[in-house]
Amino acid sequence: QVQLVESGGGLVQAGGSLRLSCAPSGRTLSTYAVGWFRQAPGKGREFVAGISRSGTSTDYADSVKGRFTMSRDNAKNTVYLQMNSLKPEDTSVYYCAAKVDYYRDYVVFTAYRSYDYWGQGTQVTVEP
Hints:
Elements: E1 3-7, E2 10-13, E3 18-25, E4 32-39, E5 46-51, E6 58-60, E7 68-73, E8 78-83, E9 92-100, E10 117-118, E11 122-127
Parallel strand pairs: 2-11
Antiparallel strand pairs: 1-3, 3-8, 4-5, 4-9, 5-6, 7-8, 9-10, 9-11
């Protein structure tokens, strides 16, 4: 069992930046592909960004391309989501998710059903 802990959410004005972090409790992330999802009130959970097990491949939702950057530092056992040029429509609860992947260095998973473990979420609020 992997427990994921997100941090870094908060309140920011439009145009500002935040960096979210995701770290597992008691396990190494090096054998997991990781994704960030978000869910606003009354809406479904949507894919934001994903990174392969090795960190060599990333993918982003069209709505965040050019503004968000996902990275991982396996030595620090942490995954990051750098969010720049934030917009009010980015306001959501952001979730980190991990999928066991022992063999594929380059695969990014975008479907939430692909993931095995989820964090509790961190709130991001962007004021106009």
